[in-house]
Design brief:
mainly alpha, 6 helices
Length: 180
């Protein structure tokens, strides 16, 4: 059996962690269909949310003008908007769950295969706490929903951009209305 210094094992773990970090992209590629569906329904949900905000603005305008017949007609549109918003929210969350589940299953299988594929000499030369530590680090990564952070950031950026464009267009049309 080979004798390893503590620094050798640390260097190997660092190299393995760096290689694992480079392979994290593969997990996104593995679940790209559910990721695409999640992003698509998130975009639709953002648009539905903005439409609902514009609908509420029009309801306020209608009630301030005292046009009760238009208010009744707009309530029907509001019901449809709420149903659509609820549906897109459900689908967005469903595909987010499927994406998370796909990645967790893949990561769990990779961890188990890596442990089962490890040479038995390695278990004898290294202490078991090193393997337990590696397992715990991967489980913490799953508990913190590591894989969901990047898509959530992209979704929030999309929301910010779309909302900013909507506000700009609405403020521009409002300024044009005042100038007329």
């Amino acid at each position: 059996m080979a004798n390893y210094r503590a620094g050798d094992m640390y260097d190997k773990k660092c190299c393995q962690n760096h290689a694992e970090g480079a392979r994290m992209k593969n997990y996104y590629k593995y679940a790209k269909k559910t990721l695409f569906a999640w992003m698509l329904f998130s975009l639709i949900n953002i648009l539905a949310s903005i439409l609902f905000a514009l609908y509420l603005k029009s309801v306020i305008d209608i009630t301030s003008m005292g046009q009760m017949e238009k208010l009744r007609q707009s309530c029907y549109a509001g019901i449809l908007l709420v149903i659509g918003l609820g549906g897109t929210t459900y689908l967005r969350n469903h595909f987010r769950f499927l994406f998370s589940k796909d990645i967790m299953i893949r990561l769990r299988n990779d961890i188990v295969n890596k442990i089962l594929g490890t040479n038995m000499e390695t278990f004898q030369t290294h202490k078991s706490f090193e393997y337990t530590s590696i397992l715990n680090n991967d489980l913490v990564m799953l508990d913190e929903k590591y894989f969901l952070c990047i898509p959530d950031i992209v979704i929030n950026i999309m929301m910010c951009v779309i909302a900013s464009i909507t506000l700009y267009i609405k403020s521009y049309s409002f300024c044009g209305f005042l100038a007329a």
